[in-house]
Structures are given as C-alpha cells and as structure tokens.
C-alpha cells in the first residue's frame, strides 16, 4: 500500500505510526463520540482495516529512537482487521473506536493488543500467542470472543459487554493459558462464558460480573487451574460449573447471586481449593450448590447465606473434605447434605434455618466424620436432622435448637460415635429423637428439653452408651421413652418430668441421681407398658445394694415378684399369691413368723378350751395345748403330742388345717429362700 492511496485520517495515522504517536479523531461531542450510540462518524473519522494491517506488518518506516505503534482514538475502522497467522511486532491500541467487522487474530503472534471503550462485532483470537496483555476494558463486543487455546501474558475484560441474545456463547476460551492475571471486573456477558481447561497463573477476578444464560451452563470453568478466584458480587443466570477445578489460594463468592431455579446453580464436584471458600455476605443461590467430593483444605464459609432449592438439595458436601464449615445463620430451603464428608475441625451451623421436603431430611450427615465440634445451637430445622453413624471427635451442641418433623423422626443419632458430650438443653422437638446404638463418651443431656411425638416414641435410645444420661426434661415427653438395653454410668432425672411411658428393659447403670427411695423408683419402673420382665427390678435392686441399702433392694425385689406374677398362668399366679401372703416371696420372712404365731395362738386357745382325748388311755404324755399345736404346725419334727391324742369334730378339722398350713409355710419359706439366694 502506498501512502498516496490514503485518506486524510489514514495519512495522519501513517505519519504517526513510526513514533507510536496518538491519532485522536474525536469531535469533542460526548454524544457524537460514543462508539455505541453516536451519530457523527463521517468520512473524516474512517480508517480502513487494511491500512492498520499494513502498518502492523511492517509497511511503515521506523524512526530511529522511537517505538512504532498504532494508537487511535475515536476512529471508525471499516473492513476486517485480519491478522490470521501473522507475526505482529507492533502494539495495537484503540480507544473509543468502532469496528465494522470482526477482528481476526487466529494463530497470530503479537505483543500488546488494547481496545478500550470500543465497539466490535466480535473477536476471534483462537490459538493466539500474545507476549503482552489482551485488554478489552470497557468495550462492547456484539458477538463472540474466541480465545480457545490462546496464550497471553494477561487478559482484561473488565467492564466489557459481550454477546447479544444470551443463547450463543459470549466467550469461548477452552484451554486458554494466562501467565498473569485474568481481570473481568463488572464484565457483562449475554451468553455462556466457557473457560474449561483454562490455566491462569495469577488470579481470576470476576467480581461484580453479570453472566446471563438462563437454563444453560452459563459459566464453565471445569478442569481449570488458577491461582485464586475472586467472584464477589457476581451474578450468574444459569449453571456455574467447576468440575475438578484447582485453585491455589482462595475462592471468594461473597455477595454473589447464582440463579438456576430447579436445577444446579453451582456444580463443583472434585473442586480443589487450597485456601478458603467464601459463600458469605448475603450470598444467594437459587438452585443446588453441589460440592460433591470437593477438597477444601481451609474453610467453607457460608455465614448468612441464602440457599434455595425447594423440594431438592440446597447444599451438597457429600464425601467432601474440608477444614472448617462455617454456616452460622445459614438459610437453606432444601436439604443440606454432608453424607460421608470429612471435616478436620468444626462444623458450625449455629442459628441456621434449614428445611427439607416430605421424606427429605433438612440436614443429612450420615457417615460424616468431624474431628472437632458440631455446633447446632439455635438451629431451626423443618424436617429430619439425620446424623446417623456420624463420628464427632468432640461435642455436639443442640442447645435451644428447634426441630420439627411431626409424626416421624426429627433427630436421628443412630449408631453415632461422639468423643465427648451431646448437649440438648432447652431443645424443642416435634417428632421423635432416635439414638439407638449411639456411643457418647461424655454426657447426653436433655435438661430443659421438650419432646412431643404424640402416641409414638419420643426418645428411642436402645443400646445407647453414655457416661452420663440426663433426662431432666422441661416437661414429661409426649410419647414413649425407650432406654432398653442402654448403658449409662450415671442416670440423672427428675420425677416431675418422668415420661408417661418408659421402657427400661435391660437398662443398666451405676448410679441414679437424685437418690430416691425404692418406693419412688418403683413408680418410675411402673411406667413401663411391658412391666413383666425382671431385669429392670434386678438392676434397681443391685443399685440399692451397691449403695448400702439392702432393705430398699429387698423392697424392689418383692415388688418385682408381685408384678411378674401378673404375667403368669392362673395356677402359677395362685401359688405366687400364697407365697406373697405368707412370706412376701422370701423378702419379708417376718410374715411366716406372724402366720406361725397366729396359727399357734388360734390352735392353743382352741385346744385349751376343748382338749382332744388321748389315743390310748393311761399311755399318753401330759397334754399341752401350745406344744400340741406346735407339733401339728411343724412337719417332720415330732414333739410327742400329735400322735398321742385323737381330736374329733371341729377340732379334728382344725388339726388338719394346722398340719396343711405347716407344710405350706415350710414349702413357701423354702421356695422363697431359694429364690432370694438365686438372686444374689
């Protein structure tokens, strides 16, 4: 191209190029100079793209001591600037310009390309090699930017507006490599932004960006590698996908808005972040946040976040590994799932509000492992809190929590393993609490708690193991309290809050607090709807024996025999009644003495008034009514009286009664003694 073929604006550019000087074609009228809406873009501002191409490829003469460059302001560039496959040695700098056709830099090699505040139909820079920064700050790209497998020192799309209809991709940059920073502050993209397999040595800054692709994968950074991600205040309409992405430092989504209702808002399975992940400061998601199998070495902070995915899962951390989970005041409409997650420190959900749906739990942490504390104070959960087979190294804190799952299980701790305590003081539960097979290294405390499950089971803790079990409820639980085969070193309760129905078959303990007399503890055991088993009474008797109150122990065992009699056959019940009346089943032997004295007195008086005649006259000992009665009462023993006299009439029948009563007393005493000895 010869300089003689140039228009006046092109001639000025040709003359300025050797020195890299600016050519400013603006009119000074803000309305007329707006590349996106102005009207004063006549021939005096037109420069052909072929002129710029010629200069960049060496058509212009260099000036010694100067750095040639194309520097334009306010120009209208017509035709296609096509540098495909070219090696460009000079900078291209355009501010507030209008390009009539797409710029093509495919497979090119260049230095700096800066196009600020300009209007472009599109940019294709696939596989470009840029030893500088590709800077499109504040520009409007009506079509697409293609940066697939490009390699640049830096990339700036801050305040750029890209795309038109939101359906086709706004940015495609699969395999992009950025040696420095990727700046996308306040970027506006009408269409998906695709950054899968991208590598950014520095940080990716998408703070305050707006990416709109409803119902599509709007922002894709799967398998990307970056130093850090700052996306605070970002708003994405559509799915954000980050499968197996690796981030060397932090990932900040504070104040972000991710909107993909009824589907996944953030899908980041296998995500790896060496620093903290921040979903705080009014972060909001409409759709699932899915971090399945993620590795978050520091913290995941979702304090005050609002997650909404009604009828589905709001937050998935299944099989994830993280240092700390902070979710104070988190609001989740949909399940929060940590099943199989591994947390090396604490999980903090104090004041969180969680809601499941139907059979779906509000919080599911089956098989999770938490080395530190699980903070659930003040938690409000509409749906089950499922902590089945969870392992917590320190404490679970549920003070003042409000859990509701009417007619079903509200809190499930089945086979949980807790190194220290589980505190439930002041907790309110509508539904049941299940902790069968749980092992609590310290205290399981229900002081001041309220549990309401109507005719169902309020607390199911069969085979529970705890150092201390405190059942001082604020009021008697509505429903059965099942402690069958549980084991606690100390059980602490309050008669005022004893459950109306209590199952304690197989319950074992070393101490009961407070120390109540056997009479009150028998009232406790009598609340068992199936009170025909001996184990609870034997355990209570053993407790009284251990604390040096054998009389209380005997009272318990006597009550046990009377209660167990109810479940026997009629014949056995009759025999039991005889033992009860006569000797109190061996635990009240004074009754046998009383019966003996009573029968002895009755017989002695009767036979003293009406002595029986001798069996053989002249060959009988002297009659003694007391000894004669005693001889009739004592079987086997022969005092020489009962065989020497022959009573008749009513006295004869009395003698038969005394003989039978004697045998009955001896038999019941022997049976009672054998029973007592076998219990020891």
UniProtKB/TrEMBL annotation:
Alphabetical keyword list: Membrane, Transmembrane, Transmembrane helix
Top-level taxon: Bacteria
Membrane-spanning ranges: 653-677
Name of the protein in its database record: Oxidoreductase
Originating species: Trebonia kvetii
Classification of source organism: Bacteria, Bacillati, Actinomycetota, Actinomycetes, Streptosporangiales
